[in-house]
Amino acid sequence: MDTINLQLSGMSCASCANNIERAISLVPGVEQCQVNFAAGQADVRYDHRLTNLTEIQGAVEKAGYHAYPMQDLPIGQSNEQEKSQYLLLQRRISVAVVISSLLIIGSLPMMTGIEIDWIPPWLSNPYLQLFLTSIVLFWCGGGFFLRGYKSLLRRSASMDTLIALGTGAAYIYSLWVTFFPSLFIAQGLTTHLYYEAASTVVTLILLGHFLESRSKDKTSEAIAKLAALAPKSARVIRNEQIVDIEIVDVVVGDILLVRPGESIPVDGQITQGSSSVDEAMVTGESKPVKKQIGDQVIGATLNGSGSFQFRATQVGKNTFLSKIIVMVRQAQGSKAPIQKMADRITAYFVPVVIATAILTFIVWYNVMGNLSLAVITSVSVLIIACPCALGLATPTAIMVGTGKGAEHGILIKGGDILELTHKINTIVLDKTGTLTQGKPTVTNYITRQADELNILQAAVSLESKSEHPLARAIVHYGQTQQVSPIDTEDFKAIAGCGVQAVLADKSVRIGTQDWLEDLGIDCSYFKNYKSTWESAQKTVVFVSIDKEIEAIIGITDALKPNAAKVVESLKRMGIEIFMLTGDNELTAASIAREVGIFHVLSQVKPQDKLDQIKYLQSQGKVVAMIGDGINDAPALAQSDVGIAIGTGTDVAISAADITLISGDLQGIVTAIELSRATMRNIRENLFFAYIYNVAGIPIAAGILFPIFGWLLNPVLAGGAMAFSSFSVVSNALRLRNFQPKN
Q1: Measured between alpha carbons, how far is 378 from 358 in angstroms, rounded to an integer?
Q2: What mean pLDDT comes out for the span 33-61?
């Protein structure tokens, strides 16, 4: 299956999004299609053997819209088609505003019944008004009629249908009055023209779309900011010469030079020099990070006062920044479960409105016998009804929320995750690399025999093939003792237990006491050391050669400075905290007490973590798992919301729903607060959209006319409709001011 992301244009409401979804889904070979109205995007999965991009675009064109493949780079910037559509909309609005202003001025004597001296008579000429109105309706607002007509052909309806029917009815009524006024006079009807109403309604709706589009652009501000971070050029060392080249010409393996205050062009590894790098714009980490030879650097981050050279390891779409942008864009284009309710309502909304308008016309014409009154009320019903506000309520808030998360170094994979996060009431924390800094160091090393370096070499040889933080600590300790790894055979890592291999025809195992004892290896020789070290929050690793314990290694990993503070913040938010770790009971209990966690499960294997998550879920809890290692991946996948520490492994990150890029635990608190703020904003938007339609449609139908003599003018109805969508988007934009409270 292939996947393609399309940029859409021509949509005016959520019904349009539903129409496009339906049109694409009917193309043979399309397996799945999801259209996001607020993002103006469609994600399509299809079988390339049965269909292709051209056929999918053709289906969208037949539906009355346009689709273009999203440009790969620069992400977050408008493509040429979007810019062209934007400029055309500006021209049409300008023409519509001028003409509508002239029509309103020319209609003032008729509307007020007063002769106004400064208005030239020719401006009130019905034939001139007909000509000017035709320009506005069929050139400036022609898209409404075209898309509305195509919708009817497909036996569907959208906001375009409502606008086309409403303004078209006012236009045709005025057309009859213009050419056959005697028919109306003979029946005792007034010969009012509603050209200015039809023209002004189209103008207001176009203006509303323009303002809405401008506001929606701000919802993608986070992506634009991220895209703007990428440098345009790089300083590369080639043939012992320093040359400036375009960023797109950098290839993996190039050696690049970065001077003080410059942006790092691509991802890489430092080969010479050192510096401090400000990674805040990508990771959300506020403090500069010290970098030296061997350390990784991220493209688009800002170098400090030092100068260094580095080897490019990832370029183009493979850089860390590009991957972040893609993840954020995909999240912004996704749908939250709460949006499904609005989509279902929208699907039935437009047909119900049309039926209401017809009923309104029949009632007023039969009750009052007034064709003009029947036309005005039914037209007002068609125009004031607004599925836009309903369609925008959820996706605009999701777009802003996920973008705001990215600004804080929190990658949220989709709207469904952002919505679910606010329901979290239980959090399960891994210890190593999550509560601790993930940079363990060897503090103690004792051997049973005198050949310390030979045993250490065996340990280093095995651990050099493992990605576990404790393994890296042992390898680093070996380097300080000038010990290098040698070749091993039959290497195997046993998750949650340790590693084993054959070295010089000897079976070597390094791991936990429980694992080795399960294999029948006696570990009692070092039990006194073990108890003492574990009481001091150290992790104890045993080294066995040919089923004999030969050494014991004590490793410590300092707690993250804000671990206790984050745990306390989560408790204040009403969340229950658990700690699961493969470490021993004494060490786990000591660390848990220090950070304020009362529920601890130690010496657990990956399957145990998975089972514990399932058990908590079976109790009706909404569980978030936070981890960073390969052994956490099953639990991350099983949990309702998996949160990966970004400094951890790629496996954990890919299994998680949320990634804390910098590894700062404060991101957990921020993610939950952001989710709660986003859901509150969505509820406000939906409430406003529902109340607007519940109150607006009856007023437009003339329910207040028998009591107060109030009748809603179609112009006011059009203005109210445009305002409702703009208001919903503006409310969603308030999320840009989000700041964590805790």
Answers
A1: 7
A2: 87
Closest of 220, 40, 214, 215 to residue 730, by C-alpha: 215
**How many other CB atoms are there within 10 angstroms of residue 719's CB atom?**
20
Which two tokens mark 70?
């999203």
Amino acid at residue number 737? N
Residue 341 CB neighbours (<10 A): 12
Mean pLDDT of 452-468: 89
Q: Are strands 426-430 and 623-627 parallel, antiparallel or unpaired?
A: parallel
User: How far apart, in whole angstroms, are the C-alpha atoms of residue 408 and residue 222?
Assistant: 10
What does the alpha-carbon distance between residue 613 and residue 633 come to, in Å, rounded to a whole number?
Answer: 12
**Rounded-to-integer distance, Cα 252 and Cα 44, Å:** 31
Q: Dump the DSSP string for 617-661.
A: HHTT--EEEEE-SGGGHHHHHHSSEEEEETTS-HHHHHH-SEEET
Average pLDDT over residues 666-693: 89
Helix (H) or strand (E) holding 296: strand 296-297
Does the pLDDT at position 74 exceed 50?
no
The count of other CB atoms within 10 Å of the CB of residue 54 is 8
Residue 566: the pLDDT is 93
Q: Say how many residues make up the chain.
A: 742
CA distance 129 to 555: 86
Which token pair is 673? Answer: 């607060």
Contact 411, 325 (CB under 8 A): no
The 10s digit of each residue's pLDDT in 116-160 is 777 788 888 899 999 999 999 999 988 888 877 877 777 777 677
Q: What share of the chain is helix, strand, coil (3-state, %, to 5)?
A: 55, 20, 25
d(CA 599, CA 619): 16
How does pLDDT run across 212-223, given as a tens digit for each residue? 666 666 666 666
C-alpha span between 258 and 303 (Å, rounded): 7
Q: Which residue reads 């049309």 in tokens?
A: 354
Residue 157 — φ and ψ, nearest 5°?
Answer: -150, 155
Contact predicate 138/145, CB 8 Å? yes
Average pLDDT over residues 362-368: 85
Contact between residue 3 and residue 48 where contact means Cβ atoms under 8 Å apart: no
Residues with a catalytic annotation lie at 430
With a pLDDT cut of 90, the percent of the chain lying above it is 27
Q: What is the pLDDT of residues 519-538, one digit of tens each?
A: 999 988 998 898 888 888 88
CA distance 587 to 600: 11
Confidence band of 545 (pLDDT split at 50, 70, 90): very high
Question: How many Cβ atoms are within 10 Å of 115's Cβ, its own excluded?
Answer: 9
Q: Which residue has the tokens 């506020």?
A: 286
- Contact between 559 and 594 under an 8 Å Cβ cutoff? The reply is yes
- Are the beta carbons of 170 and 197 closer than 8 angstroms? yes
Contacts with 420 (C-beta within 8 Å, 6 or more apart), sequence order: 622, 640, 641, 675
Least confident of 275-279, 643-647, 703-707: 643-647
Greatest alpha-carbon span in the chain: 120
Q: Give the type of residue at 580.
A: L
The answer to whether 220 and 153 have CB atoms below 8 angstroms apart is: no
Distance CA 688, CA 727 (A): 9
DSSP conformation letters of 186-248: HTT------HHHHHHHHHHHHHHHHHHHHHHHHHTHHHHHHHHHS-SEEEEEETTEEEEEEGG
Please state, in angstroms and as integers, the Cα–Cα distance from residue 643 to each residue in 353, 417, 579, following that order. 44, 11, 14
Mean pLDDT of 177-202: 78
CA pair distance 412, 222, nearest whole angstrom: 13
In this structure, what DSSP letter does residue 663 have?
-
pLDDT for the residue numbered 14: 66
Given the structure tokens 């183009």, which residue do they identify? 316
Asked whether residue 46 carries a pLDDT value surpassing 90, the answer given is yes
Which of 218, 156, 212, 193 shows the shortest CA–CA distance to 16? 156
**Average confidence score pLDDT of the chain:** 83
3-class SS of residue 49 = coil
